[in-house]
Amino acid sequence: MTEGGAIMTTSGTDVSVESVVRRAASAHRGERGALLPVLHAVQAELGCVPQDAIPVLADEFNLSRADVHGVVTFYHDFRGEPAGRSTVRICCAEACQALGADRLLSHVRESGLAVGETSADGSVTVEQVFCLGNCALGPSVEANGRLHGRVTPARLGAILNGTV
């Protein structure tokens, strides 16, 4: 985030958070349930839904700031800070837990990464999620939108290093 509510977009240019939000809201004006598509558009352009966007979204949709904040924090796909260049999501739902998801989380910690955070160099963000819909092939991991099943700690290491 830069001064004055500006932020660097995913394409590398500085823009006003307010202008991004208002442009996205304008594109979806009149649609039923437009808040979610607008949030996705804002995150696609900015890499996150920054705190500065909440009051603008509230104004655009005639909602309270608390209502908008509730939506942003309820859905795990929205983030307040940009993610790393790669995003790795580890399933920790019951089926994957039964098949060894805890070993994957341990491997992440042993690798010096923290679940729910981005690495210091900005290369990877590791997230814990609850169900990727791949229960029969657990433990499952999603890396940059690509689903992996029967993931071992060694294979997770390769995924985290970007070699898979």
TrEMBL record:
Keywords: 2Fe-2S, Iron, Iron-sulfur, Metal-binding. Gene3D superfamilies: Glutaredoxin (3.40.30.10), NADH-quinone oxidoreductase subunit E (1.10.10.1590). SUPFAM superfamilies: Thioredoxin-like. The keyword Iron-sulfur applies. The keyword Iron-sulfur applies. InterPro entries: NADP_DH_HndA-like, NuoE-like, NuoE_N, Thioredoxin-like_sf. It comes from the Bacteria. Its cofactor is [2Fe-2S] cluster. It holds the Pfam family 2Fe-2S_thioredx. PROSITE patterns: COMPLEX1_24K. Belongs to the complex I 24 kDa subunit family. This is NAD(P)H-dependent oxidoreductase subunit E.
